[in-house]
């Protein structure tokens, strides 16, 4: 299972969505802390993970707003919370319409974690 997830996460890194690319190249990559892309944690793959702050950043496309998507996300978030990791979720729309606000929220969460 772990090897399969690792292989899948590598493919996800190569095929980032335009919203993931925007957040990565225009903000997260330039932070003075380590941010991992498509990080395997347990049986899940987090879009972005800041281990020093124990924060996961998830970008949600339309599939996350279906009944199944919301149920799956709730299970993932419950697991991450159970291991002491905070999850920040942003819609692709937020990335397009309020990028600076998303960045500010991420920085605030990182600051609060230290």
Overview of the molecule:
- The chain is of the alpha+beta class and 114 residues long.
- The chain has one domain (2-113): Endonuclease, Chain A.
- 52% of the residues lie in helices and 22% in strands.
- It has five helices and four strands.
- Strands 1-2-3-4 form a four-stranded mixed beta sheet, with helices on both faces.
- Strand 2 (44-50) and strand 3 form a beta hairpin.
- The model has no long low-confidence stretch (mean pLDDT 88).
What labels would you give this structure?
114 residues, alpha+beta, Endonuclease, Chain A, 4-stranded mixed beta sheet, 5 helices, 4 strands, 52% helix, globular
CATH architecture: 3-Layer(aba) Sandwich
Cα radius of gyration in angstroms: 14 Å
Main structural class: alpha+beta
Could you state the order of secondary-structure elements as H and E? HHEEEHEHH
Here the CATH topology equals Endonuclease, Chain A
* Shape estimate: globular
Domain count: the total is 1
- DSSP, total strands: 4
Please report the number of helical segments. 5
- Proportion in helices: 40-55%
User: Alpha-carbon distance between the termini?
Assistant: 33 Å
CATH class: Alpha Beta
Q: Strand count, sense and closure of the main sheet?
A: 4 strands, mixed
How much strand?
A: 15-25%
Mean pLDDT: 88
Unreliable stretches covering 5 or more consecutive residues: none
CATH superfamily, called what?
VSR Endonuclease
Widest sheet: strand ordering? 1-2-3-4
